[in-house]
Amino acid sequence: MARPIVATYSIVACDLAARQWGAATQSKFLAVGSVVPWAEAEVGAVATQAYANPRYGPEGLALLRDGRSAQEAVDALVAADEGRADRQVGIVDARGHSATFTGAKCFDWAGGRTGEGYAAQGNILVSADTVDALAETFEARSELPLPARLIEALVAAQAAGGDRRGQQSAALVVVEKDGGYGKLSDTLVDLRVDDHPTPVDELRRLYAIHDELFGKTPKERWLPVDDALRAEIRGLLARRGYERLEDWAGVENLEERVDGEDAVDPVVLAALRRAE
């Protein structure tokens, strides 16, 4: 029986200033997010692909948790695996060190490259241009938050040729200690496109929705609620049958962006006005 090949390009990376780690991937493979990307807050991120060994995810994170560097974790994983020649893996650790491995039997084009805070890799690609685009775009877009930066790297990689077999699925995972919903989870972003003709574009669209609902606008950019704005907000709420902004926001899944009545997140205000 033929084994499934996770013909894939991926990038694992971190933003040490934001204390975030993540992985993003695209493949001609159903539900690539169920196999390739793994991440743990304050520990690191792993991408496992080609004739993928899914155990590389949890076992790689365990090695990092025990204090191994990215390179040491990669070395330990492949040394213990008799199928190493068919594997591909990329790892970034808690200190931003990175490593990538491509087995000798991975199908062309296959390879990877590393840089400060990231490892990019791919197999069954049109050419090396795909991995180069992953790396160069990640390096060039440091002004973006990590999730958006990873997506833009995928977009550039697809434009450079991508998976030689085509497109099917994509995924993005980003973690931050207590950075998830209600500060009760470490999962900042976990989005999957399991089967789609243009999965990277769809992932980008989903992330835009995620960022609107769960992103954070710096408090210095919130708008002070003066008498005129307070009256407008109350009028908009009343027309929808609400008295309190937080009640309306909860129904619209914007509750993470409401904090008191003296200032309003401009994203919330725009959504409230847009609903008019």
Task: Detail the topology: elements first, then pairings.
Blueprint: E1 8-15, E2 20-27, E3 37-40, E4 44-50, H1 56-65, H2 70-79, E5 87-93, E6 98-102, E7 111-115, E8 118-122, H3 129-140, H4 146-159, E9 169-176, E10 187-193, H5 199-214, E11 223-224, H6 227-239, H7 245-251, E12 263-264, H8 266-274
Antiparallel strand pairs: 1-2, 1-8, 2-9, 3-4, 4-5, 5-6, 7-8, 9-10, 11-12
Helix pairs in contact: 1-2, 3-4, 4-5
How does this structure look, described?
The protein has helices at residues 56-65, 70-79, 129-140, 146-159, 199-214, 227-239, 245-251, 266-274, and strands at residues 8-15, 20-27, 37-40, 44-50, 87-93, 98-102, 111-115, 118-122, 169-176, 187-193, 223-224, 263-264. The protein is an alpha+beta fold. The protein folds into two domains: 8-195, Glutamine Phosphoribosylpyrophosphate, subunit 1, domain 1 (4-Layer Sandwich), CATH 3.60.20; 219-274, no CATH class. The strands form three sheets. A six-stranded antiparallel beta sheet has the order 7-8-1-2-9-10, with helices on one face. A four-stranded antiparallel beta sheet has the order 3-4-5-6, covered by helices on one side. Helix 1 (56-65) crosses helix 2 and helix 4 (146-159) runs antiparallel to helix 5 (199-214). The protein is elongated and about 70 Å long.
